[in-house]
Design brief:
mainly beta; 1 helix
Amino acid sequence: MKTKAKFLGLAVVLVALAVLVNVLALSTATVNSGLTIDVVNTSSALVALSAPITPDPDVTVSTATGILQLTVADGVQPDSEYTFSPVFTITNNSAAGITVDLTGSSTPAGMTLSFTEAGTANAMTAYALAAGASVSVAMNVASTSATALGNYTVTVQLDATSP
């Protein structure tokens, strides 16, 4: 009987250890894998930004640094609205369709940026862009009397998602 009790006790301990090992088996892991990725000029990336064939004459477009840079030639004045068209082209170089959202941020108080498909009123929010397709973009800059004079660096953010 004592032998059976010892075996039973040993069996209970082994089962408890097995449960404990399964519970503690994996709570975190670090796995290193190989990855090859190219960092390329924005004009040849998966979602490429480039100067349009015939850009708006009042906007300078450059990709010389690898990042799209837009410069409005003579600036804008407070309490006014300007539309520049086209200012750049978005090309979907991926194998799948994407949805594009363009927004402007870091604008001074009283200024807003908005973007449309050049030549239309189609807003560049939730804009569907098929694989291999391109779209020319127009930019609207609106300022109020509260917009202070000055030189501002504004961020144009493109978010692209694949459904």
